[in-house]
Structures are given as structure tokens and as C-alpha cells.
């Protein structure tokens, strides 16, 4: 599981991490701000953020005394490209199936006449 896409999907497999990512789409936040709504410790949230950081989904910056967490949105381009490739392949298969079923239906109607 060394490739980045595997790390990203693995990181997003956890609902808390998906929620953290969703919250970061609104804007950068500190670990304390991100931890506030959860019934888990700041340390636990930090561990979740470390997984997201290792996957390239977030970075921590330094602003004076704060260390806000920033969402790296370009990583979603990698995921989107991967998903889109397989979506197109599935659509092509469904289109071929539709054509086969239409031919079969036309053949059956021709035999019934």
C-alpha cells in the first residue's frame, strides 16, 4: 500500500477522518478547533490528522503561535481521475449491454409478428 491513492483511500476509510476533511473544506483550523466537537482527546484527533497528513490530504502550517491544519485539495484530483476512469468504463459496458438488449428485444418483436 505504498502508492498515494491507496494511502488516501485508506485514510478516508475512517468516518472521523472523513468528517475532519469535510470540516477543513470550510477553512483551515487548529487541532484544538478540530477536536472540539468530538468526545475524543486532542491526542486522538492528532493521530487522525497524522494519518491524513501521511496520505497527503492535509498539511500543518505555522502562523505565529498557531499551527493550523490545511486541506490539500489537489489530492482529490488524483482520486477523481481514478474514479472517473472506472465510471467511464462502467458507462461503456452499460451502453453495450443496452445495445444488446435492444437488439434482443427487436428480434423477439420481429419473431412475434
Structural description of this entry:
There is one protein chain. By secondary structure, this protein is mostly helical. It has five helices and two strands, in the order ααααββα. A two-stranded antiparallel sheet has the order 1-2. Strand 1 (58-60) and strand 2 (69-71) form a beta hairpin. Helix 2 crosses helix 4 (42-54). The model has no long low-confidence stretch (mean pLDDT 89).
Helix content: 55-70%
- What is the mean predicted local confidence, pLDDT? 89
Largest sheet: 2 strands, antiparallel
Radius of gyration: 23 Å
Individual helix count: 5
Overall strand count: 2
Element order: H for helix, E for strand: HHHHEEH
Low-confidence runs of at least 5 consecutive residues: none
Spatial order of the strands forming the largest sheet: 1-2
